[in-house]
Amino acid sequence: MAPFELAQPGDLQEAIALLDAEDTRALSGGTALMLMMKAGVLRPRRLVSLRRLGLERIEANGVLQIGAMTTLGALERSSIVKKAWPVITRALRTLSNVRVRNVATVGGALAHADPHMDLPPLLAALGARVRINGKNGERTVAVEELYAGYLENTLKRSEIITRVEIPPLGKRRAAYLKCTTRSADDWPALGIAVVSDFQEDIRIFLSAATDKPTRLTAAEAVLTKSNFDARQAAEAALSQVHIESDLHGSADYKKQLLRVYLGRAIHEARSAVH
Asked: What average pLDDT does the segment 18-31 reach?
């Protein structure tokens, strides 16, 4: 791994200023970044640690607010999350392994932009928004707007994800399912999130089979209060999206997974207990 400078700013504005330079990367948990640096894929001259910025809080006042430096393990163990957003707790239990979850952070997982990640499709289906700070001030975007393509996010050079905000589930029910071709905590061949009140409101996001978390609007249009035909919805989804082959499965294999897992995710969401 190439040598680098480590900066440890004490406040957000100092971190933003340090990041506004070439060959500089933000360091949150570092679980993905360090692997990419060891492989020579990334060779930043400077890493800017975000550990001293006070971004680790989990709060809920109707809306769930998660600081970007909250570890996935802390999120998994949060009683606040388990009580009102239990689908997040369930999803995290098969995300990588305990050691990774105790280091990896929510902000880092979102910024990494690997389409195989579990949190982005689920948070997008939940209607989550991301608060971002940079040299031009603060902005808020929907989770799905963070992604431009495979390993490509829409963050500007000086920008830092500071918080994730998730609306209350209300009468909606939610499920996230993934299919892995090896161990249960492996990268998925396909991930699918369903959030619905099973009346009028439904949001479905697909991941791992596409180059970024993708909303299946064609499938949503098929599914109505009087017609929850998952097979018909899956065929509509397949007509909308381009399914990608990768090491976890061919495009044809993933198309069949979508046909199966969309129905399973809808069934699990229907059966979910708040």
From this structure: 95
